[in-house]
Amino acid sequence: MELTVIGHWGGYPKVGEASTGYLLENEGFKLLLDCGSAVLSQLQQYIKPSQLDAVIISHYHPDHVADIGVLQHALLIDKYLEGYEKNLPIYGHQEDEIGFQSLTYKNITTGIPYKADEVLHIGPFQISFIRTIHPVPCYAMRILANGKSLIFTADTAYFLDLVEFSKGADLLLCESNYYKNMENAAVNHMTSQQAGKLANLAQVKSLILTHLPHFGDHQQLLQEAREEFPADIKLASAGLKITI
Over the stretch 135-146, which tens digit does the pLDDT of each residue have? Predict the structure, then answer.
């Protein structure tokens, strides 16, 4: 599997960058994890929107879905200009019916529901889910392909069941929206220290801190996470590529 960070900002994108979006590729299959603000603009540095084979959405907060409509319009325009003929599947949960309905657009995209208690197969990827602690229904994902595993925490506070869910993963793509000792503010998100603690207890091989805050020194996030997980840690950045 190859992971490309398209966007990694929490809440809203920094100038010239994007909020949450990750491109996961395996055996030629291209899966987009979340489609937040400015993701479509940044995605085009790597592939055309029409090259996507599927999209999966963790939840319906704007920093994770803001560019769904933009993606749909891009494919519609490509239908007239380039003869785009596919109907792109966009997977999401149905606990927000309005959000889920927005995934279907004409004959361009179709929303397909996933359920937390089922294993989903998308192309070469096998995906299982766990509901996170967030103000709206949101799901972390364990993605398997070719014997390798990626955990995408999506948005969540720290909770013990996430440790077992993440056990032994090759890569933990973990939100870190707050710094150490900010637990009182991080009610629905994780701190850097908690991300490191999760990585350590789950015995993952490597950790990427993402969904980054718009304040402070991000190098401090790394230092604080390493207090708990003194192993392979990186900060997410636009265009970062990781082979799993």
Answer: 999 999 999 999
Q: What is the pLDDT of residues 131-182, one digit of tens each?
A: 999 999 999 999 999 999 999 999 999 999 999 999 999 999 999 999 999 9
Residue 111 tokens, joined: 């929303």
Q: How far apart are CA 201 and CA 164, in angstroms?
A: 9
**Can you give 85-116 as a three-state secondary structure string?**
CCCEEEEECCCCHHHHHCCCECCCEEEEECCC
pTM, to two decimals: 0.97
Query: Is 206 within 8 Å of 172 (Cβ atoms)?
Result: yes
Residue 111 forms beta bridges with which residues? 90
229/197 Cα distance (integer angstroms): 7
Closest to 162 (Cα-Cα) out of 176, 147, 152, 170: 152
Cβ atoms within 10 Å of 243's Cβ, excluding its own: 9
Please tell me the distance from the alpha carbon of residue 49 to that of residue 41, in angstroms, as a whole number.
10
Q: How far apart are CA 24 and CA 125, in angstroms?
A: 10
Give bridge partners of residue 146 from the DSSP assignment.
none
**pLDDT tens by residue, 62-92:** 999 999 999 999 999 999 999 999 999 999 9
